[in-house]
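R.M. (postdoc): so does anyone remember the format we settled on? I'll just put the structure tokens first.
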């Protein structure tokens, strides 16, 4: 059976070597790149199964590279795991927003790293929604990636779009944070539930006058409803 190829993008050779040795011993095929340029070269020669991407790199940061690879049709679906010394919530959210599937805060144990790599590799693909959903005067079209309220186009970020699509597809039902993580982000066992709150807040900001349709159900989670009470 073919070993999963893991591209390690890390400028500190001692850390990269340690990661590579552990991956090799656990049935993976590691490749090392010390910056964005050499990482791109490796990707061009053969697509990896997963990218372990350090946040702080010489030249382009991991954040910039993650965004770049998410925009490219060829690398769009390759799972990205961010390696970061930044444990702050806004930084984690920025990493996820840039397209990372998960993150590991340094220092981390080998077991934690392997568990997260395996979780990301086997994660369930987010649910596919029907092309067009309408709830009241709010409409979402997955084919054109558009959201409109009373006929007016709204600017909604990629993660918020997926969240809204799922909520609209299952309107009037209450979803816990863990359910939303599972269904919208996939099988991300390590992403903190507070991340959902951050994206719900952003979604409401994007929806403007329709923000009230996304209800917080105290102690239970969130629900999208057409029954807006004034």
């Amino acid at each position: 059976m073919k070993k999963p190829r893991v591209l390690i993008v890390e400028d500190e050779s001692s850390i990269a070597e340690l990661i590579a040795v552990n991956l090799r011993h656990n049935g993976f095929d590691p490749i090392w790149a010390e910056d964005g340029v050499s990482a791109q070269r490796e990707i061009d020669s053969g697509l990896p199964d997963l990218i372990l991407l350090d946040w702080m790199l010489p030249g382009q940061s991991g954040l910039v590279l993650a965004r770049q690879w998410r925009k490219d049709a060829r690398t769009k679906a390759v799972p990205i795991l961010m390696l970061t010394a930044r444990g702050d919530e806004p930084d984690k959210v920025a990493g996820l927003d840039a397209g990372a599937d998960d993150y590991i805060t340094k220092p981390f144990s080998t077991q934690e790293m392997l568990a997260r790599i395996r979780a990301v590799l086997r994660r369930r693909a987010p649910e596919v929604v029907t092309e067009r959903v309408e709830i009241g005067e709010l409409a979402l079209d997955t084919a054109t990636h558009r959201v409109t309220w009373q006929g007016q186009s709204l600017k909604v970020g990629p993660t918020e779009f997926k969240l809204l699509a799922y909520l609209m597809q299952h309107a009037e039902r209450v979803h816990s944070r863990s359910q939303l993580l599972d269904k919208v982000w996939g099988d991300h066992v390590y992403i903190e539930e507070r991340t959902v709150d951050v994206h719900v807040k952003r979604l409401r900001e994007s929806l403007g006058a329709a923000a009230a349709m996304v209800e917080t159900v105290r102690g239970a989670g969130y629900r999208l409803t057409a029954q807006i009470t004034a």
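R.M.: ...and that's the designed sequence above, right after the tokens. Also worth knowing: The mean pLDDT is 86. The two ends are 60 Å apart (CA to CA).
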